[in-house]
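=== RUN LOG ===
request id: a7f3
mode: sequence -> structure
chains: 1
length: 326
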Amino acid sequence: MTHSFTIPGLKEISGVTWQHYFKRIVLVLSYSFLIYKLSTFPHYDALIQQLFHFDFTRFVWLGGVFILLPINWLLESLKWKMLISKLQHFSIFESIQSVFTGIATGFFTPNRVGEFAGRIAFVNPEFRKAGVTLSFMNSLTQNMTMILCGVPAFLFFLGLRHTSSSLNSEIYLIVMFLMGIAFAFLYFEFPLLIPYLERKIKYRSVLDFLLFLSGYSRIELLKVLIISILRYIVFCLQFYFMLRFWSVGITLLQAAIAIPTSYLFVSFTPAFAFSEPAVRSSYAVMFIGAFVGNQVAILFAALAIWLINFAIPMLLGSWMWMQKSD
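=== RESULT ===
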């Protein structure tokens, strides 16, 4: 039995619900931005030259990237399945569909905040408000991981480089540290805020929206965080393998410092998903390029890992979304 998620007051237009129009608008925008980014890429000549200079053994590194790709998104899907299980049963395939559709809907929104629209499309209508809360909670765990791993890496980076950054490093680290504490408190101690919220929030629908999070134990929340950390390790390894594929001579230690630092800055820099390649490339050149040369190869690696980890799932997610009945 299929359900329809409708907004009160909106009627069907010529027999087609508003969701169909929303899907088409999202997909047109997403594909248009993707085509634009690929068509305006200015380094295709250098890219072709780099490819022709590869020997076969380097493709082993590329194979590693693709082997880790399903592991990356399987971990994200397991995490989402675990979170959503309080609302309804999801098979792992349904969870994968939900995650990939979220990538498609978040493609043209700042920092992919529109992911929740795709994720909750697979949640029963009566649970979708809580589903938005869980989508926020899911993002919170990944941001906590970025801070937990990125701040120490950035400290090592500053210590090894012995150079003053144009960024105000001390202020940045303090802000990140405080954000990490705030995220951890909000994540693990949310039930302590319930009595305060019940007194202060007058709108029952908003309160119900927030109270749902109190149903998770600290052990359950810790399991979700551990999955986030495992996934973080996987996509950091993917980036390292991609750098080696492009013949960037970075050591594993240097990568363990530069890659988490790069991801830390990417995660907390406001950007649309379709503009992420430029943001990712600039930070990759800044932090990885501080250890090794060959900035063009670093740029290619950052772009390639974005295409593999986000553009491919976005294409799959958009197809899954269109196949779903409203």
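=== NOTES ===
The chain has 13 helices and no strands.
Confidence is low (pLDDT under 50) at residues 1-16.
=== END ===
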